Amino acid sequence: MIYLDNNATTPLDPQVIQKMIWFIQEHFGNPSSLYPIGRQVKDLISEAREQLALAIGAHRSEIIFTGSGTEADNFAILGVLDALPDKKEFITTAIEHPAILETARYLESRGYIVHYIPADHYGVIDLDFLKSVISDSTALVSVMLANNEIGTIQPIEEVVRIAKKHGVLVHSDAVQAFGKMEVKVDKLGVDLLTVSSHKIYGPKGVGAIYIKKGTPIKPFVHGGEQEFRLRAGTENTIGIIGFGEAIRVLQERWKKDKERVEKLADRLKLGLEQSLTGIKFNGHPEQRIKSTINFAFPGLEGEAILLALATKEIYVSTGSACSSESEEPSHVLLAIGLKPEIARSAIRISLGRFNTEEDVETVLRELPEIIKRLQEISSFHPDEF
Ligand SMILES: Cc1ncc(COP(=O)(O)O)c(C=O)c1O
To answer: Which residues pair with 194 in a beta bridge?
Structure first.
């Protein structure tokens, strides 16, 4: 099989598997227990926390483990807004992941005013819009670092500069950026940042949030004293240990991985461009996570391309995995100005650590055949688009 959907999830790194197996065999203690078998697990969780802190340039007391990236996003927004009850406005973007957008809708249902920053054709957000809506009533601005569907990287430092002028806090969803580009909280200047384990070759069901010291935030889960009393509940010990190991491995190799994967992505993109007339690439040509390649084939259905590739055991996506069962075209592609029928024809290929040159060559051999066949059986009229 050729797995090209690494933005949806990544396979576990073998070193992560080893560490998790070792952990299950050797440790079962509750990290809150005071005797040695509990303390040992607590120490291992601290090590994982330290790994993440080191990776993003934070202090370990600023890291809270959560049950997913989605939970971390919810926590960042709802926790800050709960702590600032006098501020009833929230700003985010039209191209966020549902983890943010659905939280924003929930806020609207509770009477908050939400401003959605639009994006241009490349998926870069409009900073003038942000300047025009930010005010003393704004509690928080949340802007993703890299988009999961088209890979476009947002100018977070600029967002922070604008927000700080108004004394407004900034959160960034870095789930797709972490592991693919440098993510340092001090450089970015953000107050809160979200990451997720299963996008960096770690286990699913574990995420984390960075909360800068001094940030006003209310607890998200009430109960025991775990996670500095902000997110109660006995820890997902095995998930956190796996996540910590995934971050350790990442630290060792992300730069080399990035170079190699981007070379593969360049080769794939160029090959597609040369062999497929009518292909339209989405996302910013430069300011992008290069391993994410999103393209449309006017006149075809993305889902038909996906299914035809799946029969060859080549796995890609039509967009965000979380919304791939909905009939609606991608909200991101619509927000960057694609017509619904073109958005519906889009395919996302996302490469990762375990992809090879052979994978790329196979796609370049198979995809043009598939497109040709689908174009023959569809009522394709190029002039209509
Ligand atoms: C940008 C972004 N944010 C948040 C999430 C949600 O993370 P999780 O799957 O850990 O809930 C994803 C997952 O696809 C994502 O791509």
So the answer is: 173, 209
Same domain, 74 and 157: yes
Residue identifier of the C-alpha nearest atom 15 of ligand 1: 175
* Domain annotation covers residue 184: yes
The series of mean pLDDT values per 10 residues for the chain, 385 residues long, is: 98 98 98 98 98 98 98 98 98 98 98 98 98 98 98 98 98 98 98 98 98 98 97 98 98 96 98 93 97 95 95 89 65 97 96 98 96 83 53
Maximum separation of any 2 CA atoms in the chain, in Å: 74
Domain closes at, from 217, 249, 281: 249
CATH number of the domain where residue 369 is located? 3.90.1150.10
Q: How many Å lie between the centroid of ligand 1 and the Cα of residue 177?
A: 11
70, 73, 92, 156: residue to mutate for ligand 1 pocket, most atoms within 8 A of CB: 70
Q: Is the CB of 148 under 6 A from ligand 1?
A: yes
> How far apart (Å, rounded) are the C-alpha atoms in residues 350 and 149?
9
Verify whether ligand 1 is closer than 6 Å to residue 76 (CB atom): no
Q: 232 and 260 share a domain? A: no
Phi, psi of 52, deg, nearest 5: -70, -40
